[in-house]
Every structure is written in structure tokens, then in C-alpha cells.
Amino acid sequence: MKSLQEIENEIVDEFSMFDEWLDKYEYIIELGKNLNNYPENEKTDEKLIKGCQSRVWLDHKVEDGRIYFNADSDAIITKGIISLLINLYSGRTPDEILSSDFSVVDKIGLKENLSPTRANGLVSMIAKIKEIAVKNS
């Protein structure tokens, strides 16, 4: 398994290939299409991330000390954003997640290029991933 830093570097490299934010948004939307299927019966209120304008469901399981995430959203860009976070943090230990500064979102310029409501949603997604890591550490 690649290190968290290696995956962050790959993401930064991938985003640097695009000059325009419209192209980056299209890439984010494509990432969302790669999410695993999320069962409809698992789309419950307790799995909804609070603070997101769109509905985002996040579920997890712990196996061998690693947290594996699954998620879905009813909005295509938001689905891509949560997919990006899952690509980074799924399969990591709680300590790896908690030691991350989540700076990759700044390095690719994501937060500054989102609407204020989507940026708040991104912060809420990160907070929920950290919360899950704390509960499982």
C-alpha cells in the first residue's frame, strides 16, 4: 500500500495537469463516478454528514486496525469531493488519519475554488473522517 504522502503527491500531480478549474471540476466529477455502490438502505440519517448543503452519507468499517470508508452524495461535485477524501484515507489506520494535516485540499486549491457552502461541506467531511478515526484509535 502506498503511503499517505505518496497518494497526496499523486493527487497534487493529477490536479496540476489541468490549467482551468472547469477541467478540475470535471475531474472531480469523474472521481465521484468511481465510488463503490452505496446501498440505498444504508442512506440513513445517522450516516449523513451534518454541515453539508448536499446530502452526503459516510459509512465505515474497521478491519485489522484500518478504517475503510464508503460514501455517496446526491450532488455530483460533492460526490467527487468525498471520493477524493476516501481515496486518500480509506484503508488507513486511525493514527495515520489523525496525523494528517489534510493540506492536500489546500495544495490543489480545492477549498478556495469551492462556493462557501461547498467549502463548509468539505470541512464537515474532513471533521467526520477525523471523528471516526478518534473513535477507533
Give an overview of the whole structure.
- With 137 residues, the protein is mainly α.
- Helices cover 51% and strands 12% of the residues.
- The protein is built from six helices and two strands, in the order ααββαααα.
- The chain has helices at 4-16, 21-33, 76-89, 94-99, 104-107, 116-135, and strands spanning 56-63, 66-73.
- A two-stranded antiparallel ribbon has the order 1-2.
- α3 (76-89) runs parallel beside α6.
- It is globular.
Short characterization:
By secondary structure, the chain is mainly alpha-helical. The chain has helices at residues 4-16, 21-33, 76-89, 94-99, 104-107, 116-135, and strands at residues 56-63, 66-73.
Unreliable spans? none
Q: Termini, distance in Å?
A: 20 Å
Taken in chain order, the helices and strands follow as HHEEHHHH
Query: Which structural class do the helices and strands define?
Result: mainly alpha
Strand order of the largest sheet: 1-2
> How many E-type strands?
2
How many helix segments?
Answer: 6
Strand content: 5-15%
**Radius of gyration (Å):** 14 Å
- The percent of residues in helical segments reads 40-55%
Q: How would the global form be characterised?
A: globular
